[in-house]
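Dear support,

Our group has been running a series of protein-ligand predictions, and this particular one with NAP is the one our PI (initials K.S.) wants archived with full inputs and outputs. We had some confusion internally about which version of the output was final, so please treat the block below as the authoritative record. The input we submitted was:
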Amino acid sequence: MVVAAKMPEMGIGFQGKLPWRLSQEILTFKKITTTGNNAVIMGRKTWESIPKKFRPLPDRLNIVVSRSPPKEPIEGVKYCNDLDNLPSLIPENIDRVFMIGGSELFNYYFKSPLCKDIILTELHNDEPVELDTFLDWDLTTWELKSHEELEEFVGFEIPREFNEKGYKYKYSLYRR
Ligand SMILES: NC(=O)c1ccc[n+]([C@@H]2O[C@H](COP(=O)([O-])OP(=O)(O)OC[C@H]3O[C@@H](n4cnc5c(N)ncnc54)[C@H](OP(=O)(O)O)[C@@H]3O)[C@@H](O)[C@H]2O)c1
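Confirmed final output from the archive:
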């Protein structure tokens, strides 16, 4: 499944980083992706955007997608150079596989039948936010599940609305 955070115009990044730094959003992302024995898949650019001291993301199998071999292999981190081979890299004891970005992987997976659920943080800010990386998604044919179904899916309660540093945001579960 996919976990992503976006602005109304579908922006998700700016200059190789997240446009925002919201502690509750980071905590909620961590809780969603660490509930269970899970894997997180990310593109090489997203991997490099995570400060070295915070990667690999703890308590999750990290898989980095790149067409080139890693510059410095890191113990416990798997590399994938062909997305068709990704399922063979997932051990049997993994409960959930989360695709966590960035745009190149999100846009690829959105079209894949393997992507059945999307947990989306939908952010809004009254002030303009600089964005240069966007999702190419049309969710109109996807089903928006209720907040209760979202909570059941993630396995814990999530506030209906967050308000942090000028951003208002909420979590939604979309199903193909
Ligand atoms: N808001 C959010 O939810 C969110 C989440 C994550 C990231 N982001 C943001 O998104 C931006 C990064 O996104 P991005 O699109 O530039 O980069 P990305 O998707 O993170 O990484 C792209 C790289 O992944 C590898 N790759 C992609 N498709 C591949 C394939 N089919 N086979 C093999 N390798 C493949 C390539 O690596 P090589 O070049 O090494 O071959 C490619 O250059 C940043 O601004 C980041 O902060 C936002």
